[in-house]
Amino acid sequence: MKEQAKPARRTPKGANPVANGTPSPSADATRESKRISSSGASQQLDGSRFFFDYFPIPAWVCNPKTLSFLAVNEAAQEKYGYPRDEFLAMTLKDLLPPEEISRLQGGKKRKRPIVQFSGLWHHSLKDGTTIEVEIISQIIEYEGRQAILMVAQNMTERKWVEDALRLSEEKYRALVENINDVHFALDTQGLFTYISPAIERFAGYQADEIIGQPFAHYVHPDDLPLLLASFERTLTGKLEPFEFRVLDKNSKVHYVRTSSRPLWQGGQLAGLTGVMVDITENKWAEDTLQKAHAELERRVEERTAELAKTNRMLKILSECNQTVVRAADENNLLQQICHKIVDLGGYPLAWIGFADQDSARTVRPVAQAGFEDDYLNKVNITWADTERGRGPTGTAIRSGQPCIVGHIQTDPNFAPWREDAIQRGYASSIALPLWDDGQVFGALNIYAAVPDAFHGEEVRLLMELSSDLAYGIISLRARAARLRAEKALRTSEARYRNLIETQTEVIARSDLNGHLTFVNDAYCRTFGKTREEFLEQSFIPTVIPEDVSISMTVLESIKSPPYRVQSETRHMTPQGIRWFEWDNAAILDETGHILEFQGIGRDVTERKQAEEALRESQERYRSLYEDNPSMYF
Description:
By secondary structure, the chain is of the alpha+beta class. The chain has 20 helices and 20 strands. The strands form four sheets. The protein has a five-stranded antiparallel sheet with strand order 2-1-5-4-3, sandwiched between helices. A five-stranded antiparallel sheet has the order 7-6-10-9-8. A five-stranded antiparallel sheet has the order 12-11-15-14-13, with helices on both faces. The radius of gyration is 56 Å and the shape is elongated.
């Protein structure tokens, strides 16, 4: 069992300063023993009794003949575990193992010098622990007779420290030689005096190939000036990590980081020592991360710009849709739409042209907004397949598809208008067809001040805008037609009915169980729900309860020839209860089997109200006539 070292005893106030702290293993004991006998072998212990008692190393006085203890100090009592009275009842032999007693007896026969190093001995403590001690003894006079003063320095603790130090050194050497980090030392001239074997792992050099060589031989030339400056600063004591490139045995570049400090030997600056870490993979990872970060930032910027453009387009779409809904006049609608596009979208020019059905197939501008400067009076655009009809406007009308000119300055099809467009700052443009019942009747044209301005989501939203605009135009025209029809109702009901029947309003299709499979946009707008909310639902919920039986009868009737039934039912809409006239028909496949049902509905509320008003008026006149026949002749 190894003994644990105990803390040094505190020196009492007034004690000999030599006793302050624990002396080195043998040198201190020797110095103190010599000091005790400095006046010769006849030095009395009594005068140094205080020093003896509080000396921090175990010490005792014993009879040279019997080896019995005559005096012991406190350190001996504390270390060996025996109180003073037990110690004084013992002899030196009681501390020794049997095999060392004979060695003690042999020493007694030899003539002793005044101060003697007795070598290493093994002593037994009271708890049974064996320790190794170094004994230093000298002959003194004690209480009028010759005695031996002995000092026992515990060598077990020193050996433990020495073993631990040796083991630590071995572990440190193994650690230095086996870890991936490279340990090195340089002299003041920059020559390697040591480098750990780890250098071979990434540089390919054996350690003995590098020792004695200047570090500059292995540094990338571009990094050498800064590294030399850092080397000089480190020698002056300025510590700074440094990153640079080194070349391995195959001239491959590696990135390393070093941390160094001055190396002092014998009070003289001998060079510097440090650690080198291969950070090549980290550098590659950093470079990759930086590139990925830069790419991410670029994409974020692009996406941010796209989102800003999309948000701008959504605002344009929303504002234009509100304009379409509120519009009462077609010309006013066209002009407002152009202004919304220019004001909200930041485009320099927007204009709408209708495709005339004349022999020249002229495109007639009908509305514009933005910086135009007489541009539209000069364009002379046609939708015929000629030079002046192959620009974006004519192409969009002929093809029915959006036509984009990304670079007005270079697009060959834009040649007839290029000079005027460039003078006005137009760099790209898009033309979007306006459809009505399968036929293109015009185009919405937008010009941008930057090249390649129209693509992706922006084009999709502009197509939606042109579709909504076309719907608005058609709706206004339909509304005008409806007003004319209502006016004609007073003179010709038949003519009015014929006109109403030709106006397509809401369209719905359902399966054989009455569940909706298709509704058009007008249906959704009329009944205030999205298409998804309608699909797979029954059409019955929109019918007021009083008219549900009519709808059920119609559903059964169209299952048999002639597979067509007309009906009028009242429906709940966001605007309240509205009358609808339905043209209901079964859709058959080529074998005559019913696939689904289709209903085309027209809002005839105004007509029904007019009829009811007419009926009430007739009733009032009839009542007046019947009650007062004399009023009429």
